[in-house]
Amino acid sequence: MRLNKACLSATAALVVSALGLATYDQLSGIDDSEVRVAASRSDQADAGVGGEPALASAAPAATVQPRPQLPAQLPGLGPSTLAHIPDDTRQVVLVTGTGKNSSSSQVVLWQRVDGGWIRGKVWAAHNGYKGWTDKHYEGDLHSPIGVFGLTDAGGRLADPGTKLPYHRSSAFSVSGTGFEGEPLAGAFDYVIALNYNRQPGTSPMDGTKPMGVNRGGGIWIHVDHGGPTHACISLSKAHMRELLRTLDPAQHPVAVMGDAGSLAR
Predict the structure, then answer these.
(1) Could you read off the pLDDT of 18-43 as tens digits, one per residue?
(2) Fewer CB near the terminus (10 Å): N or C of the chain?
């Protein structure tokens, strides 16, 4: 059966509306059964499963992760210790002894950003054989408590890529054994001078001692040899390389060091 315009069925009119056909002329060659099938398909497209209206698919809402809350102050430090950290310091090597008389400690590199302080990894370390002291003297086998600038580096090995001034020299060679019989060879492969009783801006090997020889000096962060030090802080060679590559003079790095009780003052 053929349809002409004059007897166009209501079904065909529905299809025209549903399918958006421009004119009735476009239906002139369509069989009535085809019209009914097309209309049925159009109706099914407008219905969901079970005859319910189909819902437009919506993109899943983006999950907003809360911004981590960074500490505004360095944890574990009391007002007296914090007062000695320069305002422009943005890198702090925090050395925390496990006890006032202990030679074991932990090191964490903290870096300040606009939102607070970001904590680095925790590294095992050694400090002076007899622990910590507020007033260090030559040969007392204690590490000094306090805040010390980190401006100069060096070592027996080539510069690993630090931004600090780096003095390479064979004079950093060391031999002999430590307090527990461990070999000291390689301990000065990499060193970072602590600005305790020294002239900043010089090689770690420089012997200038502004407070006098009796107050000690030549106190460094250096490669760990597996036991206590005379007064220095020691880290594994891998961690020394990482620290040297991270410290940046533009961030005015300092070491904050002492036993936990003293740092909390």
Answers:
(1) 334 333 334 344 444 443 434 444 44
(2) N
